[in-house]
Design brief:
Helix content is 55%, strand content 11%. The chain is built from 14 helices and 7 strands. α6 links the parallel β3 and β4. The radius of gyration is 33 Å and the shape is elongated.
Length: 336
């Protein structure tokens, strides 16, 4: 919508990871260097962690774009909410191997045959596992076992693990010692600083043919950074909404006030309706730990209600008896 209004060739702030928009911040350059170093080693595991939306997937897709396809066969897994056997099926599928109705033994055999065929052709296999924080320890161990496929002098499979910071807890657990010994490099991708955030926004705009319309003030850039914390996905979400508002209201100069208006709209959209929020507060209060005197009062109330219920039943029984006697007395007497 707003692309035509501002004379842009494409949408600059899409959420889909696109290597054409790759921006080499200091952190992203270092992460890319680790990936390239690991790739040159041709073995072991490379671990890259980062916050949600930090740009890990874009990083890998940029790496894939620059791979020598005649030498490296790369596959990627993004669905990691799976058990170990299903993960093996995903690995087989990612490399284009048949996997349906296959036993674990069959999957491992097919994978080994595939990897050895790659080696005979002078190629290497690279497996990239995204969202690694969702992997169970058993599944991580299954992936480690795949690295046992080797020739006399080299590994047949190399693996990159990308995940959120909590994956480090899995990596540092006691039962991951064997995996840690095979990790040749690890890097945590942090957020961008304020200067990089501005450069990132301008880079994406220049990529789609921006020539200064709309203009973005220093105050606006500062407000975008304060809200996003330098996380690329949050920057994209906010800027996309900002440019949409600019199109709807025909704005050609973005100041801090416009950015704050959009931030307010976004925050309001994610607030619960008043009735639902009140219900949730009530549930939260109910679920909080009760004081002893409160619990005692509740127990006394239950006891009183029980007594009242018994009294009502007794009264009802008495009324039934009275009505029954009354009806008998009012029956017409038989004539003798």
């Amino acid at each position: 919508m707003y692309e035509q209004f501002y004379g842009l060739k494409a949408k600059p702030f899409q959420l889909k990871p696109d290597p054409n928009f790759f921006f080499g911040s200091k952190g992203h350059k270092r992460a890319m260097a680790y990936l390239e170093y690991g790739l040159s080693q041709g073995e072991g595991f490379i671990v890259i962690t980062g916050e949600v939306g930090a740009g890990k997937t874009t990083l890998v897709r940029n790496l894939f774009r620059n791979l020598e396809s005649e030498k490296i066969i790369a596959a990627q897994i993004v669905n990691t909410h799976l058990d170990s056997d299903d993960t093996l099926r995903m690995v087989a599928s990612a490399f284009g191997l048949p996997y349906e109705d296959a036993t674990k033994a069959s999957l491992l055999t097919r994978l080994e045959q595939f990897l050895r065929a790659c080696d005979r052709q002078g190629k290497r296999a690279l497996l990239v596992v995204d969202e690694a924080q969702n992997l169970s320890p058993r599944t991580v161990e299954e992936l480690r076992m795949l690295s046992n496929f080797q020739t006399d002098d080299k590994s047949l499979l190399q693996t990159f693990l990308l995940g959120q910071p909590e994956f480090r807890r899995t990596l540092l657990s006691d039962d991951m010692q064997q995996l840690r010994q095979r990790v040749i490099a690890t890097y945590h991708l942090g957020p961008m600083d304020a200067t990089e955030t501005r450069s990132y926004i301008e880079h994406r705009l220049h990529t789609v043919g921006w020539h200064g319309d709309p203009s973005v003030s220093d105050e606006a850039f500062s407000a975008i950074y304060d809200y996003s914390g330098g996380i690329p996905r949050k920057i994209n979400t906010l800027c996309d909404r900002l440019f949409l508002m600019g199109y709807l209201e025909e704005i050609h100069d973005f100041r801090g006030s416009e950015v704050k208006d959009v931030i307010g709209d976004i925050q309001q959209e994610f607030n619960l309706p008043a009735s639902e929020a009140e219900t949730r507060r009530t549930v939260d209060l109910t679920n909080t730990e009760q004081k002893p005197e409160t619990l005692a009062s509740l127990e006394n109330m239950d006891e009183r209600l029980s007594k009242m219920e018994k009294s009502v039943i007794s009264v009802l029984d008495l009324l039934k008896q009275i009505l029954s006697l009354s009806s008998v007395r009012n029956l017409p007497k038989e004539k003798s």
